[in-house]
């Protein structure tokens, strides 16, 4: 087991590597050529233009100003400077509330850490049951609950502390829930007119032999919402079309690449093979080939579009129905329309950006079967994912490679390379799996039939959290694969499971401290460096970029990634709460993580990430719920641990804690969750009345007419067919991020520029 | 363990006692003097008048007609004769659907019994692992799964049968859910105008310093539902008033009793003691005393009524808000009104009869704390109820009684009496507790703050089911108190719990067969006899009844008692499903119970029970859910049982069953439950449109004005104060059970009379 000294060394290494990342970031970001990698958000919002256009050429690559190397952390105060309302206007409420998760971590764990250091640590340290022990215990264990002898009365301290920490956490959670709920309501209320405020998504429109879907929808709502119905838009099945469009785009990219290649080297026309992956088949002139391919696809696209508009089979049994008033839409979204609860399903339309178009037409029975399939699949994924990986690992050994590619044998047999491969190969299958896991989970959610990106991400996040809880948290505490654990738990009593886990917890403290430093500290620092987008951008810049538009496409701002990011934060909440009473020395590491991550992600959200959609913090109930789960888990594990310590006096008093915590959760759910699911009629009526007074002659129908059109009909291929699109997109009034005060941000933007321009 | 012969004897005894009950019933019911005990429903509906008024005097007591003794079961076909739509009109949808639970039992278990007798029984019987066994096994065990040797391949039969039974049960459940849902929708749609169709209950109206509650409600709904709001009624706090009224009623009863006594024996004026229970205190003239008491209470009631109308503190923060259209009410009931989800809570108003007035003003936080308290209390009630009972038992022994009442010592010491008391006393505390259990659970539900009788009963039923499941089902299988079981389960692995229970199941078959016969068969037969109401009616008739009105009050039709009746039926579903594969010999007993109970309760519903409220079968989701629970329990226990039989090949194939069953439940829930919770707008609009066309000049406001008035202002004390009540009750349009075709029922009524009049 590691001593305090070992941890000190590990901390030093991780702090150094974090500093190295920050240093690299500081150097790279002030090079104007990387400007689009590190500040894409400002480009997307049109508040920043390319620095390449002006200035001395030499300054583009080398920064010789000594000051900027001293001030290499000055992005941190800059990131913290933007006030929250400004941030909401800049990057949306989702991002602002996402940052509050880190703040929540700080708010919860800083007082807990102080209290734990003031009370729990001295009690643990002075007990000294381990001082005379024959087993070699580490210093860390001296500070943990392990140091307290069996049946000691000192466990009352831990009991009282567990209560104190629970109450503090619940208090902060409740306050935060309240704040976020009111932020959401304020955000929704203060928003400008948005199409989704007036629109309801109707799914599972039952087929009618006499009427086409469009008329059916119109008649149904004219009859059942006579005073409120305004207009509707049917949903077209554009799967094939969008696949054609993306095919065309890829071919166009290749065409551009070969054109660029040819223009640089006029002596030889580039050629390619038509077969598998460009490796086999007959050789053809690449430019001619791709030109003809693009032309063919353009034709097909035009044909398909024509078909979609004319053929009624392309209309899906779903529609976006818009109402005259927000009140009408709120009513329709919250009520049941028809006797049969599986048809005419209404719900709030997601924001146009947020719609996931492919799942519009899944019928009820199929939906329900899909859920079952995914639930079973997820169970197997969580508990049996090691089996295929072990299989791949068994294949991917040195002998296997030598058999497959005999000509590499001589290289592989070199000792250094051999040992490297042997050490590296077994891990790679697992690593690849873990990298792709969020995408696999997203695919699962998509299969389940959710209709907005935000729901998809929330669902995936829940699954990812469960996976991490079982395979990272439990998997680290108890050795063995998840399936072995499951098997063990099934054969253990409900009483013994918390004991088994609880006993191992103090022993794993050093492991988790290292984990926090590597994954949390260094990981955060690596995030800000954006190594992958940096490389990809420069590669694209080299091979594809011709115009300014290409350059904009080449920059990949990325998104916040709620589906993988939030579960990772939750792991830290879990670790912090579990160890708060047991081994408080872990807490400062958690606090540092939350502080660092808050600064880093605030910087990234301001400068980098693109906002894919705006769900108005709809994810908060999930965040809250998972922290409560962590709290209950920590209480159960503490009970298990204490019962192995034979602290028979104090353990029974812990039983009330999970009961109270679960009750607290239900109370909060009832009190605050409706703000995230429903839209109060009072609010709707207020906004309607105001709007009517302000703009009595508003033509709402025009405003709503083309809000919900499949994106493939909107932009995507603006190179041609524009004239046809005109009839589709009359007023492309997409949701704009509101921006009331423009005077602050350009300043902030200039500030972050100022460090880079200081070298000019 | 009992042999088949033992069971035959037990069956004979129970069948005989059931016949004895039926015989007694047949004799008693044809005595005209008991007419109001056995046919109160017809009196309540005004379709039958007292048979005492006409006919020969002697025939009132003795029935000498030989034929009626042969035809003593002829009420059975009569009970089955009334068609279901007729039954719905006669006794309400709740009763009709309640009977369908018994029918459901028959539908599920008759085919299962046939299949089990055809397949499982021969397989068990011919295995014969027990034939040569040293242990003495009973014949029953030869027919059960116990007879099959370990590791036998014959367990595949049971596996396949488990699948077959599950699919059959699910199929029937789904079909039944569909039928009941459509019955409910049809019932709601075909109903006449009812106040609750237009009315929404608003609770937690936030206090406003500037406006009284009545105005506040009016303004809020005028603003937020401008086109639909019609009128509202505030809720008065009439707790004190109703307690005064009931006090007065009781004193009036005593006054009547003493008056009657005096009128029969004019020589001596009756007197009573004013102290504790009429045992102590000074002696006064009873008639004078009660006359003055009644006068005092009348005055107090008048004062209290005056106060309620004038003092605004008596107005509770709740109101019944009525709308112009059903559409408007449906919208308001299903939507959230205000930002703060804990105020302005709207829900469908219960039927006026169904309202539980005392819980109208419970604030949200208090509600949530009450739920917690009751959840904890129920846990302790379920697992620790034996502790106080054991305590009472330890007190109530012979010595204790002798000490308390020494003068009885000589009587108690008589040997026969002593042994009787010793045998009787320990059981009595438990028996009393079990008799009062449904009332205790009802009190708990009332404390939880539900606002309609139907919800209260549904909630109590759920709790009663859990109690029975743990204390009757598990308690019979595993010896020891519920708490000992809980303790054992906590210390057992999740794998072992089904094994422990599963192993004991075949051994308890004979016990449960006896239980079914005693509780099910004889219990049903006893129910029809109505011994308690019979005695009480005749006592009241003797001491209190002066007028026809008194006689109506004296008859106690009782109600269906969903809160205690349904959980008991569910126990039979559980037993049937658990034993269907294990010991199929139990199935015929279950089938007989369902058949018998169906006939008995159909008779009682037609002739006896009064309908307290009409919830339109809102309880069906609970019934369905509990049968699914029974199904899953039976599957888990079978898994446990088979794994102890080391049937390693077949057991894993059972895992899919609970997964599929739970999925089936979720599917049904999504598909059918909304019909029981929501009111589709399409339906509302259809009815509104129809009504507008039919009755364009309807004065809805007048119709609704006094629908939701506390019953204490309506009837109750119609002896005086009537003139004051007039201003309250303008149009006492209470919900009438609709009756379209009157030609059938009087016939049925006459039929059931005919047997009694045949003796005249």
From TrEMBL, chains A, B:
PANTHER family, per database record: PROBABLE MEMBRANE PROTEIN DUF221-RELATED, RE44586P
Keywords recorded for this protein, A-Z: Calcium, Ion channel, Ion transport, Membrane, Transmembrane, Transmembrane helix, Transport
Protein name: CSC1-like protein At3g21620
Annotated GO MF terms: calcium-activated cation channel activity
Residue ranges of every copy of the CSC1/OSCA1-like 7TM region domain listed in the record: 370-642
Limits of the CSC1/OSCA1-like cytosolic domain: 197-359
Composition bias, Low complexity: 749-760
